[in-house]
Amino acid sequence: MIAFPTETFYGLGADALNPKAVEKLFEIKQRDRRNPILILVSNFTQVLDLVENVPTQAQPLITRLWPGPLTLVFKASNKVPNILTAGTGKIGIRIPGDPLTHQLLKVMAAPLTATSANRAGEESPTTAQQVLQTLGAELALILDAGPTPGGLPSTVVDVTTSPITLLRKGQIPEKMLE
After folding, report:
1. What is the reported pLDDT for 177?
2. Which parts of 30-163 fold into alpha helices (H)?
3. Fold of 2-177
């Protein structure tokens, strides 16, 4: 389990395709297993491997807003562990805009979980020091790249519905989604 900076907060990363690693993430965060966890990938080819299909209405968002703080929710392929989807059959995916996070994903060549690096219900951390104080003993690595901007989290949009559904307001203004 690792912590790393994103374009918003520090994230908690585990191999997204390893159910045991994801289970450990839920334990560390003390997170309700009914809450799905999004994943980060480094490129669109990885997206295609993790979803059943990419709906037409998702294409403009992908083209204009990826990489960046936009999480798109797709129907998950059978490669995605059920624990990540919380039994919904859907998976949130983002290609991050943060250069360090993007490089980490390229090196790993695998999707990573990307929930905030805190216990459920606590404030999302913007520094590696905050992560160290709350979760440090349970992590193998904290990648310290200085403070993250904080503010709003990533915007989350469900592209499996027509029209698309805004699930969480975030860094991408609603007007840009129209």
Report:
1. 84
2. 44-50, 59-65, 82-85, 99-108, 128-135
3. DHBP synthase (3.90.870)
